[in-house]
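Thread: quick sanity check before group meeting

JM: Hey all, I'm pulling together slides for Thursday and realized we never actually wrote out the predicted structure for the chain we discussed last week. Dropping the sequence here so it's in one place. If anyone has concerns about the input, flag it before I start.
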Amino acid sequence: MADESDEAINADPTDEIRAWGDRSPAVGTNHGVIITGDGAQYTTVTPVPFPLPENVRPRARVITLPRPATRVFVGREDALAQLTEALEAPGHAIVAQVVHGMSGAGKSELALQYVHRYQQQYSLVWWTTAESLQHVQTGLAKLARFLAPDGARMATTEEAAGWAAAWLRAHPGWLLVLDNVTDPAHIAGLLGSVANGRVVITSRRDVRWPGVTNTLHLELLDPSAAADLIADITGHTDPASHDSARAIAEELGFLPLALDQAAAYILQTRIGLDDYLRRLRLYPEHCYAAAAHGDKAQSTIIRLWDLTLRSLLAQAPYAVTIARVLAHYAPEEIPRHLVGGQSEDLTAQVDDALGALASHSMITLTGQAVTMHRLTQAAVLSQTTPLPTNNTIYRDTALSWLNRAMPANPQSNLDGWATWRSLLPHIDALSAHHIPNHETGQLGLVLKEAARFLISQGEYQRAHTMLSTAAAIAESISASTSPDLAIRLGDIAVAYCDLGRPADALPLFERAFAIAESDLPPDDPNLAILLGDLAATHRALGRPSDALPLDRRALAITEGALEPEPRLLAIRLGNLAATYRALGAPVDALPLEHRALVMIEAAFEPNSPEVAIRLGNLGATYCDLGRADKALPLFERALAITESAFGSVHPTLAVNLGNLAVTYCTLGLPRNALLMARRAVAIVEAAHGPEHPTLAIRLGSLAIAYCDLGQITDALPLFERAITIAEGALGSDYPDLETCLSNRAIVQCDLGWAIDFQEAITQAADRSLAIYGANHPATQSFQQLSDKLRDLYGATE
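JM (edit): ok, ran it. Output follows.
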């Protein structure tokens, strides 16, 4: 029963579309959606399922590129012709072309030039960074959110990516550009699942590519073309300047990226080619070999950054600061609103700085995003790495900007999800820039909030990794015993509870409470919050006797406040009632739940989700008292309110549906129960994945409905799966495991497996004794049944 605790590019494609780029409160444990604020804050969404991929067609050509193709394109006509010939191969099977070469050789530019010239041949061109499998999925998910925004709004990244792959499989005439692929395995599944399209893959690696027959190696520019590139960009096209342009190109190893940046410097500083050549030779390549670890391309770009740095420091010093901060983010699609920390006072200064960097070809700038080439990032960082203090300043500034850009309430604020998706690559990059065991507390908070967003997207493994790092960071600040540390530890523990890992949350809550208790007055409201957290975690672990004194103390603190806030007081009452129910004392819980409901109905609108929570808890208490008839209208009203507020597929609904399923079974209405239980299972599995412990509860309810319908063989595999999930998620100490075991045992008995039944009941009795103690009603019930079976069948071996 319910147990309440503390707490792309999107455009309407009617014309040809071009796109050149793409705060955490202190709350208690909450195993559903976090609702925060002085008053409740809710987002009302009516989810729409994905349409069939074959039925979705853009009404106009769709072109998405990270930036426009460069105006000056020389020395690559043969390569462009080879790429064009490969992609124009006849037939309807997928055609994939790999362009590989060293960093800065112009692989992405070649792909941009092809799209610029031949885009009319395609109904859709979709460009995505493919540096990792995660990047591939994110890029495909953006495609789904563009083509089917309503269906993709609440879909996880994996679900949206799967739909996009299905769309590519169902439609011909598209071009997909997978930029900077580092491992063929990251795209093998995609290439094997789509057809009727064209794919361009850029990569630094010359390896065997599965399913790809066409590869094109991009060499450095030949000397004449390299000289022409510098001459055309700078305007020094007279014959007398050609030798100087060629000498500059030779100094820069004929690397296109370096040539472009050198030409931009010459153009912006208005100096002659000979003067630039002289300045360049003041910084010989061998001086930078160590910083570049022997990478010739990287050492070349570092030399150029030295020259650009001196120019920018004189002309636009804030641009240098911006560059050093940007170097700590992921290279692609840095949201422009992120730069400057969202300070309106700095808007003009930031725009000027970005313009200066773009004019020197240090970045690519669009209205929405900033891109800094990996080699340029390495060059910028090479200037700050020898100065740890300065490097820390820029890194921490990048972290501060990111922190300010993060939307609040990452699990329930659906309008912020698009922003979160754009920030995640940069959170990963910033985390990598921190030395292990020397991370900052702010990074821990950022990782914790990012993890909570990932939980909402069903990306549990990635969320767990972030949470583990965040917890380690909080623990590393062990010298501090301030309330701030208590809040950090508590926040991370809440996120662990969201992951269904109360065992990991418990020591964090315990330490947080110890710190807060030593620093705060005994009647401080923050102590009540932490007491509620700690009690709820004990209850989740099947230790209600440990939760009882904590809940009582939390309620006393809240009631003792001068003007208790109704919502907080209702939470305390509900938590104490939940503990009484877990102790087998629903009679003591009933007046608490009645009081909480009356209080909330007086303070909130009748259709508020806060009212639904109290209705559900009161209904659960009536069920525990054997009054399912009294519970049913409460649960039905709670479901109607919740569905109106959150939509028809929100995870919060699963609790209401599960309550109704159990109640219908109790009232002898198993077909009604089956409908509710099936829907609850589908919602939880879609929202939380196939291994979340909440799913075990929903599967159990579905199995019971099948049992009441006499469909025993349908129930058994559901109980088996529920047990596997429960043990896998929380181990043998999962508090509801004995219920799963006993339910399975009953089914086994109905199937004639008496010995299995006896063993399972004995196991459930032993577990209940260890968790709840000898006086708990569940323990006594299991023990009585076990004794009767022993009398009938004898002792089991």
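AS: nice. The longest helix spans residues 296-315. The mean pLDDT is 80.
JM: adding both to the slides.
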